[in-house]
Amino acid sequence: MRNFVASLFLGIAIVFLVSSALLVHPFGEPPAPMDDYIIQNAQAETGANNVVAAVLFDYRGFDTLGEATILFTAVTGVVMLFRKKETAEK
Amino acid sequence: MSKIVRTVANQLILFIFIFGLYIIIHGHITPGGGFQGGAVIASGAALMIVAFGSSRIQKGIKEKHLSILESSGAVIFIGLAFAGLAAAGVFFFNTLIGSPVFGHTPPTGPNPGDIWTGGIIPLMNVAVGLKVFAGLSAIILVMALASSGEEVEE
Question: Where are the domains of chain A?
Fold first, then answer.
């Protein structure tokens, strides 16, 4: 039963992945309006010459916030794994 | 490690740190930014730990100090985001554009670049660089201490 459920979910995941790989729009084609907007206006709006930094820290700041949270969680987990062993007296 | 490794690490460490700081501070002008520069500085810290041994490093820098640095980087980052919310009502709003500090805007298209541009982007780069440097260094230090059988002093 567990094998059946696992293979069912695996099949659904494979169908989803293959269909999204077929549906993804080709690189740079057709140009999305957002790309042109960012390339044309990023320097004037954010003042940063590096448009990648402008997207990371200004247009999509939430994405960077999530990335920082992931790093924080990773550090917390590693330090918790390797912390000093407390003697089990209490 | 051997004397050769220690000598070379002694000479290289300053240049690695300076290069990482350059990548962080020029993150809004040239390719790079907080994450990349922080990773470069953390690689310098890894070189120090490998060359001199984790127990000797731990006499100067403890895991507690790195954790405080990382948390302060995160607090600065979120504080800058909330500054936008307080000033303009939009989370992550670039409040410093137009002000004398980092407030210049370059012309659209290729230009020589100016350090006083970018609004809050350079400040966020510094905060994220501090956070990534301290976080990765803490991971490396704690793992090196655990693999050498020493206890982590908190």
Answer: 2-81
- List CB contacts (< 8 A) between A43 and chain B: 105-109
On whether residue B70 sits in a domain, the answer given is yes
C-alpha B118/C-alpha B91 separation (Å) is 17
CB atoms within 10 A of CB B87: 12
Look at chain B and report how many structural domains it folds into.
1
Burial class of residue A77 in the structure, from the number of CB atoms within 10 Å of its CB (0-12 exposed, 13-18 middle, 19+ buried): exposed
- Residue in A with minimal Cα distance to B115: A48
Alpha carbon distance B126, B86 (integer Å): 21
Domain of residue B95 covers 3-147
**Is residue B153 domain-resident?**
no
Instruction: Give the list of residues 6+ apart from residue A37 with CB closer than 8 angstroms, or none.
Output: none
| pLDDT digits 0-9 by tens, B18-53 | 999 999 999 888 888 889 999 999 999 999 999 998
Global ipTM: 0.83
Phi, psi of A24 (to 5 degrees): -65, 140
Would you call B140 an interface residue with chain A, using a CB distance cutoff of 8 Å?
A: no
Angle, CA B75 vertex, CA B70 and CA B77 arms, to 5°: 95
Q: Considering only CB atoms, which residues of chain A are within 8 Å of chain B?
A: 40-41, 43-50, 52-54, 56-58, 61-62, 64-65, 67-68, 71-72, 74-75, 78-79, 82-85
pLDDT digits (tens, 9 = 90+) for B88-98: 888 888 888 87
Beta carbons within 10 angstroms of residue B24's beta carbon: 26
